[in-house]
Amino acid sequence: xxxxxxxxxxxxxxxxxxxxxxxxxxxxxxxxxxxxxxxxxxxxxxxxxxxxxxxxxxxxxxxxxxxxxxxxxxxxxxxxxxxxxxxxxxxxxxxxxxxxxxxxxxxxxxxxxxxxxxxxxxxxxxxxxxxxxxxxxxxxxxxxxxxxxxxxxxxxxxxxxxxxxxxxxxxxxxxxxxxxxxxxxxxxxxxxxxxxxxxxxxxxxxxxxxxxxxxxxxxxxxxxxxxxxxxxxxxxxxxxxxxxxxxxxxxxxxxxxxxxxxxxxxxxxxxxxxxxxxxxxxxx
Length: 284
Hints:
Blueprint (H helix, E strand, L loop, with lengths): L2 E10 L7 E11 L4 E6 L5 H8 L7 E6 L2 E2 L5 H7 L2 E4 L12 H11 L4 H14 L4 H4 L9 H13 L5 E5 L7 H18 L2 E5 L3 H7 L2 E6 L2 E6 L1 H5 L2 H6 L6 H11 L11 H12 L3
Parallel strand pairs: 3-8, 3-9, 6-7, 7-8
Antiparallel strand pairs: 1-2, 1-4, 4-5, 9-10
């Protein structure tokens, strides 16, 4: 599925004294197989934007097209396309409610009218895809799991409905290092296994540098940067002006280079930084 956002505006409190443009003339495309990260300071319009992509919010101006169809049309085709765009909210574990993990993951497919056998297959496949053994966790209460496991169950519940676009709002927020690593590994696995478009909101530049194919930067309701991670994070001063920073590894290498170290500051991840330091200084 290809998503096209065309000249999108969204206004809160339109016509009132506190009228605010949450989105201003936003245009972008999302294609199958891309893992795109959306970044921006708090209040920049990120969450408002993604809530337009599956019709939760309607634009005051502009369009959101899925495979060329306006998703806000009142037609069976538009309704079917909206169901192919899965949105996992921040802290999705608060949306878990069933008695068991298996029932929770089956909830979406069941409401799509699938048979018990089809629901079971989709639930099992989705749990495996997020790194969880259905035989081990299926009969457990979702509330007995760790925070990271709950989050993976919530993602599995969306995957069980076979989305062609998966939107994740801060999927690693609040997790310990092990939980964050498991979530990021899960997201990479979803992309490789299903080749769907994944759009991920994050405030963690290290995570963005590690997994993104492309980075979108929002500022004051506008899309101001769109490109590969290396290209976007090379705009250090522009990012600082927006209250954003380059990934920690990039900032560290920038300081080493500024201090006279003969290293390239053109790195983004900790692994890249380690390789560059070994290249210059050798193993000690």
